[in-house]
Amino acid sequence: MPGAAVPRGRRASYGRGMPEGHLLHHHARRHRAELVGAAEVTSPQGRFDAERVQGRLVDVDVHGKHLFHLWDDGAVVHVHLGKRGLFLEAAPPAAEPRPQVRMRVVGPRLVCDLIAPMVCELTDAGGQSAIVQGLGPDPLRPDADREAALDAIGRTSRAIGTVLLDQSVLAGVGNALRADGLNLAGIHPATPASSLEPSELEHLWDVLTDLMRRSAEDGRIPHTVYRQDRCTRCGTPVVTSDVGGRTAYHCPRHQPVR
Questions:
Q1: Catalytic hit among 158, 220, 227, 246
Q2: Residues 224 and 116 in one domain
Q3: What are phi and psi for residue 103, nearest 5 degrees?
Q4: What are 40-95's pLDDT values in tens digits?
Q5: Does position 10 have pLDDT exceeding 80, yes or no?
Q6: From CA 255, how far away is CA 135, in angstroms rounded?
Q7: Which H or E run contains 40?
Q8: Of 79, 105, 133, which one is at a domain's C-terminal end?
Q9: How far is CA 188 from CA 90, 147, 218, 247, 251, in A?
Q10: Are residues 109 and 184 in the same domain?
């Protein structure tokens, strides 16, 4: 909530595994509420050129797994958390930062420390646009082109579980969202995407969008099969396999092989 007290040093990264799109949207909402208006950005670790950022933070944008801090001097700070990145939050006044803090932003109601990101770089609007152009639609964005995404998914014979991890087709879905989204949609991860009916693709989009929206609000995914011994919906033992180079999880009852 805007203006809510923040416990000092609270970890603002939730769940297990690589942060996925829902979590970046969760962070973006919080940063808009608590950091916009910030005029102080530093790099205690010294691995980010924070001195080149001037002015005030005016907005926060996100597309898939990429978060952007927009400053009124035209600077854009691009963050991709990767596997290990996380945000630490505390209420002002700011305590001495940990030495591994890549970037610290001090806002009116929040001190936000970024630790161990895969990417923390300074760019501009053109650089942001170039990054976004390489990504597929993000279901959580109001400008998401649903038809373009479904067309791209339906035209490939690759396994649907492989396609969902392709960020150039659909931005923001990672292994956990893939597993639980396909489970809720009743689709086996090895099913060729081109074999799915248009109505099935539309249902999958709706399921993923709803799952991502709820997960963005809570900061965590309500898992049904991902890293579960049994499907939380029916109790059937979860089966694992390799799909697209990642461990896939499915329930044989809800997701039978076609």
A1: 246
A2: no
A3: -145, 135
A4: 999 999 999 999 999 999 999 999 999 999 999 999 999 999 999 999 999 998 88
A5: no
A6: 28
A7: strand 40-42
A8: 133
A9: 42, 22, 27, 13, 8
A10: no
User: How far apart (Å, rounded) are the C-alpha atoms in residues 54 and 75?
Assistant: 8
d(CA 182, CA 198): 15
Residue after which a domain boundary falls, among 98, 133, 168: 133
Does 83 participate in catalysis according to the annotation? no
- Omega within 30 of 0 (cis) for the link into 7: no
Q: Confirm whether 257 is domain-assigned.
A: no
Nearest of 17, 87, 25 to residue 219 by alpha carbon: 25
256, part of any domain = no
Does the pTM surpass 0.90? The reply is yes
Q: Is 19 a catalytic residue?
A: yes
Catalytic: 109?
Answer: no
Question: CB-side exposure of 78: number of CA atoms within 13 Å?
Answer: 18
Residue 192 and residue 108 share a domain: no
Q: Is residue 20 among the annotated active site residues?
A: yes
Closest CA to 117 of 9, 19, 215: 19
Can you give the pLDDT at residue 191? 98
Which single residue is written with the structure tokens 């603002």? 12
Element (H, E) at 179: helix 175-185
- Which listed residue (30, 34, 65, 139) is catalytic? 65
**Range of 83's domain?**
10-133
- Binning the chain into helix, strand and coil, the percentages to the nearest 5 are 30, 20, 50
